Amino acid sequence: MKIVKRYANTIAFFMVAGLMCGCAVCEKTAQPAIGPAAPLVFTGDVRGGALIEAPGGAEQTFECWFMALGMGQGDKPYDRIVQTPDWYLHTIASEDEVSALTFGYTGADGKVQGFGNLGGAEGVYFGKWQHVAVTYAPEGFRVYLNGTLISGAKALARALPESLKGGLACLGNSSFGAQRAFKGKIAGARLLDRALSAAEVAARATINPDGKPIEVPPSAAATEADRIPVVDISTDASRQVIIAEGAKDRYEGHPTTLLADDGRTMFCVWTTGHGGPCGQMARSDDGGLTWTRLDATLPEVYGRTHQNCPVLQKAKGPDGKMRYFIYSAKAREGRGLGILMSEDLGKSWREMPFQAHLSAGMPPTGFMVLKDGTCALFGQIFKSRAKAKDRPTDDQAVWMSVSQDGGITWGPSRIVAEADRRNLCEPCCLRSPDGNTLVLLMRENRHRGRSMMCFSRDEGQTWTTPLDTPWALTGDRHEGVLLPDGRYVIAFRDRAIGSETYGQFMAWVGTWEDIVHARPGQYRIHLLRHYGRGGVYPSGDGDTGYPGVELLPDGTLVCTTYTRHFPDDRQSSVVLTRFKIEEIDNLYRKAK
User: Fold this and answer.
1) CATH code at 2-216
2) Does pLDDT of 334 surpass 50?
3) Type and span of the H or E element at 304
């Protein structure tokens, strides 16, 4: 037994079994948990905290049950569950709920390696018991929520300390009297001098302190059947082309691409800085192998007033003329839609009238030519203007607008997809192989479950109620193409809870039936590696995956994104990878 010293508005001392290091008592605590009684209550007072002892050495495990009951006092809503001499774990709170966990540790280089917005199988909520565990071993740190691994050793293995120092740790604050006070309950806190296995952690996260089984929504939890194979081409430099290389002081990000009707000319637009100014464009005349910058051909007003993730589209108007468009945000004029248009296949561009009636703080990402020759555009809008800061808890819905003139002007928007306590955004619209059904694949920005999708069988006039996508199709900013063999290749930033490639640039390969019936799909492709740096923003973990996906006439797929392509101080670069699906099929068969 070890003594836990408790401060602020509670009894002074507590006796808690198995809080420490390598003794027989500690080893006994590695059995499946029953509901631990007598939780410690933390009032959110910055003078509060409970001191416990953390073992040093080559391995360590911390685990506890916690229930957040509000926001603690302090300068920021980062309420610490625990802080040891070597690492910390805290919640990110908002006014009405807790959205995520943040983990960080002091690396061998003395710098803090931070990993924010860690999702879980159900997210982190107020008023609900949840189990958390952190393990440290030579392969790195692992963080578990409710028995599910949410950050693997691959993500948390940079600049690892050779061993942990150990010493006094603090529950419910970063230290006694600090500005990271936790408000809620903590029960069953234990520190061991060995790393529990994933199976051991899962076994312990079963019965909560109220004696009830833990609840994990089946829609979010991955089964073994959900975990389809991954074909990794992310480090194959022979496939890769750098369109715009980042630098220590320059961030190249958020590209989209457009393939001309000749099947070989490609355009790419992007921003500098995360959600920053537009003004960048390049053209390839050979299917993405080489690129020429076209910034000087764009109107000056584009780089001065347009920003945040520009989107390239093309459409044929009622007059039969093909036009190219760049849709972007015009933040200086409100949150409406800015448009650049080219009527000469990308040789020259001009700004079109501002579409103030369309919400475009994030430019609309979905586009579809409808059967009657009109065009549909799909974007996102905050459900509440009082909460519109693009936080995970600021819920959004997806709107649709129709253009009668081939994309030059747009009609009023209407909401076509929304869900309770779900943050739907960045829609991608795809058509079924038979041409009769549309699907919207949508990012779910709370990142607590799967992405969502809805369907229309009447060219967008009505839509089904949104439901969950397959686990392996869970991601941010989907973009895809239909292959001649009837399969889809859909690229995105991986957000599948428990995925070993979480936060990486991935593609899903599967059929229309897989999508409709929420089946796992065939396999996923790790397209490009993102060397994200926790605690460094932009270019942190998961800051990648806004793609362009093009299918060339010879079957070559060109997938473009921004990514921290180099494991050094260079920020994000705009990079593409090229492959044929037959090559990936062969790699998949060899790996089986």
Assistant:
1) 2.60.120.200
2) yes
3) helix 300-305
